[in-house]
Amino acid sequence: MWALAVLAGWTGRDIISILDFSREDIEELFRVADEMYKYLREGHVPRLLAGRVVSLAFFEPSTRTRLSFEAAAKRLGASTIGFSSEEGLSVSKGESLADTIRMLDAYSDVIVLRHRYEGSALYAAEIAENPVINAGDGKQHHPTQAMLDLYTITKLYGHVDGLTYGVLGDLRYGRAASSFILALTLFKPKHIYLIAPPSLRVRDEVKMILGEKGVNYSETESLAEVLPELDVLYVTRIQKERFPDPKEYEKVKGSYRVSLDLLKDRAKRELKVLHPLPRVDEVDERIDDTSYAAYFQQARLGVPLRMALLALVTGALGG
Amino acid sequence: MAPSKEELLVRRIRSGTVIDHIHAGRALSVLRILGITGSEGFRVAIVMNVDSRKLGLKDIVKIEGRRLSDEEVDKIALVAPEATINIVEDYVVVKKHRVKLPEVIENILACVNPTCITRQPREHVKPRFRVVSRRPLRLQCIYCGSFIEEDYVIRQLEVHRGY
After folding, report:
1. Are the beta carbons of A138 and A120 closer than 8 angstroms?
2. Do A118 and B145 lie within an 8 Å CB cutoff?
3. In this predicted complex, what is the ipTM?
4. C-alpha–C-alpha distance, residues B44 and B67, integer Å
5. Do domains A4-142+300-313 and A143-299 have the same CATH topology?
6. Helix, strand, or coil here: A51?
7. Based on the domain organization, do B93 and B119 belong to the same domain?
8. What's the pLDDT tens digit per position in B48-80?
């Protein structure tokens, strides 16, 4: 059943940054996710993780990521333990992340971690013997979101290569946007437009990778200008609190809102709009029922993709 | 060879380590990187701002009674990329070594990013940086990805817990 994939390399693997993976790894993951997708559709999911325990350690709030990991674990027959905020935990009494990780490592077979500090997942992986999956570390990485984003694009277009991408919004502090951009560097995009106000432009370390990998990209402040060229528009939220001056925020927020009128006026008919969600008002709700909207499909694919990841890193597919 | 004017400022050491060609004014930072505070009991001589053909002005550090390994001294390339290390035995230089910055700098510098896991006092994570570029100096935090540049490195090593 799994002969198509060389799966042994995944067992025990930590998922910290999308850059730890090769294109081949990602394609292999997608093949397994396709199998999971098929099981879900048919309503017969093998209990590959029966008897296993998955820790969901969410020190920061999350809806989609946490629930899709939980659903993924349970679909495969695993139990879950965990928490979804620091409240009521020993950490609020001063316990270190390191000690919390040691405990979860002893209680479970894999740890899914979201934490507000950059580098927390790598640190946790250095401590834990079992695999650690980074579900967001501060503003830095969100690798499983990036995997899911690329998976969605392969479902929509059949491939990631050769397309023109626009990544819009908070490219500086938004981990989903950074991870998506980094994920694209594993493939051969035709061009990436990084669309953001000057204060929220992509960080230097992300630009360094784009440069090293020889990716065609350009930075712009204007969505309308580049919209006609785009095959995929990846939208992220611009948060008011990122602006030192609230007046600055008021000035830019309108220009980073994606309205149906703008799409009808300027975009290709085949354009697909992705968004890691939650959204506030940056994507016009009138887009939801059009062929542009891919974000709900994107959210749905989170479950089979994360099922594939859990099954791979726990070695449940090895035999 | 007759000792030079600079060497005569501080008497020659019998055995130990002489670190030459340190950029002027950075001798104390070099000692800091090496973790030498003076309380270890070695005799340490510091000569600052002496003439140098190569650097204009330079500092020299002499440590009597301690032979530093290449690995130990390579870290000083952070602040003294031109430094040369002379290992002395019985007044004779038995080994010369030009410092070379290692690929990874561990536990010397703090990350610039306040929300990096290495900056959290509760966690005791050893900060680690990979060297992205030697000249100009550019390091990247292994944990959070932030870059730090030469001026930040120098400032941190000078200001932090001064002598």
Report:
1. yes
2. yes
3. 0.92
4. 12
5. yes
6. coil
7. no
8. 999 999 889 999 999 999 999 888 889 899 999
